[in-house]
Amino acid sequence: MKINNIKKTTLSDPLNRVSEQVGKLSEQLVHLQAASPFEMQSLHSLEESLADLREKAKVFEDERNKLQALAETTQAVNSSLHLDEVLLIVMDTIVGLTGAERGFLMLMDPQGEMVTHIARNWEQESIQEPDYAISRTIIDQVIRTGETVLTTNARLDSRFGSQESIVTHNLRSILCVPLRVKEELIGVLYADNRIRSGIFTVSDKELLTIFANQAAVAIENARLYGSIHATLAEVVELKDLLDNIFTSMGSAVITVDIQEQVLQSNNAAESMLGLSKLDIIGRNLDDLIPSLARDLHPHIEEVIRSDQPIRELDLSHHMPGSGQVEWRVNLSPLKDADQTTRGVALVLDDMTERRKLEGQRRLLERMVSPAVLQQMDPNSLITDGIQSDITILFADIRGSTQYGERHTPVELVTVLNQYLAAAAEAVLAEEGTVDKYLGDSVMAWFNAPLPQPDHTLRAVRAALAIRRSVLALHTRLPLEAQLSFGIGIHFGRAILGLIGTEKRIDYTAIGDSVNTTKRIQENASVDQILLSQDAYDLVKDLIMVKQIAPLKVKGKAGSIPVYELFGLNDPGQ
User: Fold this and answer.
1) Which of the four CATH numbers 3.40.50.300, 3.40.50.970, 3.30.450.20, 3.40.50.720 does domain 249-351 have?
2) How far is the C-alpha of 414 from the C-alpha of 440, rounded, in Å?
3) Which CATH superfamily is domain 367-568 in?
4) CA 520 to chain centroid
5) pLDDT in tens, 11-47
6) Is the pLDDT of residue 499 over 50?
7) What's the pLDDT score for residue 474?
8) Beta strands in 214-338 (DSSP E)
9) Residue 375 pLDDT greater than 70, yes or no
10) Which of 117, 333, 374, 562 is deepest in the core (most CB within 10 A)?
């Protein structure tokens, strides 16, 4: 609303017309000489009274016009919740009501500094920052005291005349009014005139003080509206983001009320149930997933009763078209704005494939050393072999052939597995790698894939542990199932790596040292542990042995020196 659009009252117009008629009557009486001196004196007194009334009427009209403008502007200010629009109306009103040359509206920023938000001149044009020539002294006094400052001529005012800003900018009439909301200063209104003195009156001061109080409330309301509007925009944006996340989640999400009727579901839940959202919302869990709902029911009741979530609940049920499905379910209280629990949020993850993979890994760990598995990257399997110095152990079950001739294959496998498991556990306990099972024998090595400075000693301890395990098995098995091992240990260089194709690979060790170890094992008798010279040299100060006759084996031109192992010099090693 522009101040020049305010409708002016014309209270003095009738008085002007009466005064004109009295003047004409007086002139006519003088011309006709029809009036006595007393009558003429009365006419002059009437003319003077009318002139006085005209002056009073003009003052009254000015005050009334200002009050009317103030009322209309206050209404306009309070009808808008847009801060920029409110500030513009406030500033143009001040300049228009007071006859100021310029007006400035300043608001307190979060750091406590007064910042000019709008500056206007008498032509209702915005003033640019380089022309902000104002009295900081007067503004600081209003901020400090919270009282309005009025000066009709700042240069001659003893309070401010010596201030540099007043002298430099040739400031004359100044009116500065505080803006307060609930006794808190939020800004100031500043108006001045650099050309004329005496522009502002005490009436202007009182009028603008009232107006400033209304304007301050309107400004604060606009600020609050802007803050709420911005917060609402953030909430809407966050809601849209959450909706997108909710929709795109791979986990099935279903929210239910305390009667277990579905309130909301996401795309994954719709896919899981094979139904559209319209077919899901409002239905009971018992109707949608009967077998799962029966298992979920006591847990939903528990969440509602305790107001506490339930994490990682594993359930299994049959889904039409999918068969048996393994679910992991998380349940959380569903609360309203008052933090009252109104239902439960269910997050379901299909763990069927993961359970299958976990089972396959457990099976693989029984076939391959965990240390080997940790070294394997399924995304970058390298089949090139690596040369490594390793200690190799071969252990073969003695007496299995004869046992197999007298028993069924199932009985044979059952017994062999107990012995092979005992051997594997002894190797893994020393952090060795079980390479493979060859019928009724096991191959293992030490010092790879992780280096082990005492690798040969570990192999020795593993062999002795196998012997002890066999004795423990004999206490539980019938006499005819009491088999034994022949063990060979050798140290040498081998090629370690993945052997095979993409469809079938095997992590193994190959080389002459492997063949040599196997030949040594083949020459070990029942419960005998044989070490090659190379293995013996690495642990000779730690073990009790007896050198036996060198072995003549197939594939070797010379004989192989060997030692029979009896135990450790220090059993605590």
Assistant:
1) 3.30.450.20
2) 12
3) Nucleotide cyclase, GGDEF domain (3.30.70.1230)
4) 63
5) 455 555 555 655 555 555 555 555 566 666 666 666 6
6) yes
7) 94
8) 252-257, 262-265, 310-319, 323-335
9) no
10) 562
